[in-house]
Amino acid sequence: MKKFLKVGLIIFVLSSLVAMPIKAAKYDKKKPSDLYTKAIEHLDKNQYGKAQKVLRIYTRKKKDDADGWTLLAFSSRKLGSYANAEKYYEKALELDPENKAALEYQGELYVVTNRPQLANENLIKLESLCPKSCDELEKLQDFISSKIEKEKVNI
What we know:
Layout: H1 2-24, H2 32-44, H3 48-61, H4 66-78, H5 82-95, H6 100-112, H7 116-129, H8 135-153
């Protein structure tokens, strides 16, 4: 009986060791569109670290996808990695200078890092892209306004 327990334990340990690398590499085996979907699921649950991990893989596979870079920047910003977020937003906007989501989120980064003039520049760009308004423009306006209101309260 003890022999069976030992053999069972050995099999369990070995199968765990084999399964560990598969779990760590599971996202590498998926198609980029599946990766993007998985990242969105993580973001919807505010799981920014998990989203960031998936988006790093995604952007390696889809180097020219501005939306992927935007989401990688967004998750980095939410994790407080502002320098990386800034670099990723710049990459997204290099690929697509009219990417409204990147302009909005980059503007929010500028507000958080106390660079209101740059945030206002993004607001102006969004106003030109959305002459009748758009969600991204309204969200950035609200973000800037809420920052100003918080500063007034703290005076």
